[in-house]
Amino acid sequence: MPVMNLVTNVPVDSVVISDILKDATKAVARIIGKPESYVMILLNGGVPISLGGIEEPAAYGELTSIGGLGPSVNGKLSAAIADILETKLSISRSRFYIKFFDVERSFFGFNGSTF
């Protein structure tokens, strides 16, 4: 049930969106150690973003998971997602932030209940 929400100021066409969703799903599942069927990725392109007062290509992400996160894993996730954004959208690693949330089961809803 890891959920990653990515926002970028780069307009993204449907082909690139599909590639990013697939690549990010695989990366998150592999690195956290959860099945791909549990991973949700959201991508919103063309959102106004300024980083350092500059509106060049940039992105922000948040990843929420029940367990599986920690300093080593977070570093690997940050690198993997930065690679995907750099390759697919030409977003420099220096213009991408990601925030990690490791939550308890009772703080995550699914199927009309909590985990």
What does this structure look like?
Helices cover 33% and strands 25% of the residues. Helix 1 packs antiparallel against helix 2 (71-89). The chain contains 2 helices and 6 strands; from the N terminus they run βαββαβββ. It has a single domain (3-114), classed as Macrophage Migration Inhibitory Factor, CATH 3.30.429. Strand 1, helix 1 and strand 2 form a beta-alpha-beta unit. The chain has 115 residues and is of the alpha/beta class. It has a 4-stranded mixed beta sheet with strand order 2-1-3-4, with helices on one face. A two-stranded antiparallel sheet has the order 5-6.
Q: Helices, strands, pairings?
A:
Layout: E1 3-8, H1 14-32, E2 40-44, E3 59-65, H2 71-89, E4 96-102, E5 109-110, E6 113-114
Parallel strand pairs: 1-2, 3-4
Antiparallel strand pairs: 1-3, 5-6
State the gist of this model:
With 115 residues, the protein is an alpha/beta fold. The chain has helices at residues 14-32, 71-89; strands at residues 3-8, 40-44, 59-65, 96-102, 109-110, 113-114.
